[in-house]
Design a protein that fits this description.
Layout: E1 3-6, H1 27-45, E2 50-53, H2 66-81, E3 85-89, E4 115-118, E5 122-124, E6 129-132, H3 138-154, E7 163-167, H4 182-187, E8 192-196, E9 202-204, E10 209-211, E11 228-232, E12 236-240, E13 246-250, H5 258-262, E14 266-272, H6 277-289, E15 294-300, H7 324-339, H8 341-354
Parallel strand pairs: 1-2, 2-3, 3-4, 6-7, 7-8, 8-10, 13-14, 14-15
Antiparallel strand pairs: 1-11, 5-6, 9-10, 11-12
Helix pairs in contact: 1-2, 7-8
Amino acid sequence: MTYALVADIHFHGWSAFSKVDETGQNTRLTALLNDFRQAGEKARIAGAARMYVAGDLFHVRGAIAPSVLIPVRDVLADLVAQGLEIRILAGNHDMEFKHSSRLGNATGGVDMIGVTLIHSTTVFEDDKVVAVPWHESTKGLREELERVAQDLRDGMKNPGDYDLHIHAPVEGVIMGLDGIHAAWLASLGFKRVFTGHYHNHKVLEVGKVISIGALAHHTWSDVGTEAGWLLVDHRVQHFASTCPKFADFDADGGGEGVDDLVRGNYVRVRVKAGTKPAAVTAIRTELEKLGALGVIIQTTKELTRSRAAAAIPVSHSPGGSISVEASVSHYIKSLALAYEGVVQEMAASVLAEAV
């Protein structure tokens, strides 16, 4: 059995480095739609009958603009017409409320023949997949996963025959962000555990736990992460995103590999405080000549406290329970110590995006 697996698509009318084309469609949304379509078409060629979305089809909780919803529906309908069934798991960004439900799930806007919306724990016997949507607490998720594994055993079925799909934070996927322990997930006994939520493709526990990673880079927080989609059968193949990446480096860090880092991507460069405006302009011009699709230049103080971040403790239970709020708070504190004024600029950017 072969299927495609993608997560954290975050279809949205992104404002940074984008514009509206002649049809009124956001250009970064168009890039995401093209990437998603290509993944579906390649999966069909490879023999997949189904594509699973492991959460966060959309980006804005509780408010999907028609200019986003309609193009997404069109692409889904095209893939279904090509013979690809699509199954969409509820992620935290898809839900208006804290907990998964049919009423509060934005993916209800793409309900159609050939698209299955997963609001609650569901077992798919055709692909031997168990899909569990977002839970607000890791404690609640752990209890649900233990229940599902036991239910399979009670029904004379072996969890080791099934892949588990979840949308949840997993420790070890992104440095500085905690979550459920990968070893605990592996101990549940499923064939493999595939997770959405953290935007980085990473293989843990010798292939037993696999972070899918986001379909593409979405913000500066995705710098350095591996984006794309998976083709799953007896093995797992990762296909890189075709969308531009977010790239980040220091202007005085050396020139080796800069061309590949810059070309076709969005670039943010840090320069030392006191750098003359003419030098900043020259850096911007050179990056644009190298093919950067967008450039942000930040002038910061010397980052003298970057090592202090590691000293900030984060408490969690042996089972890996930690709230999203606590994990984010730890990450922000780490950044605040390391980057000082940069965090303020990031916060202003987030606020502008939210407005």
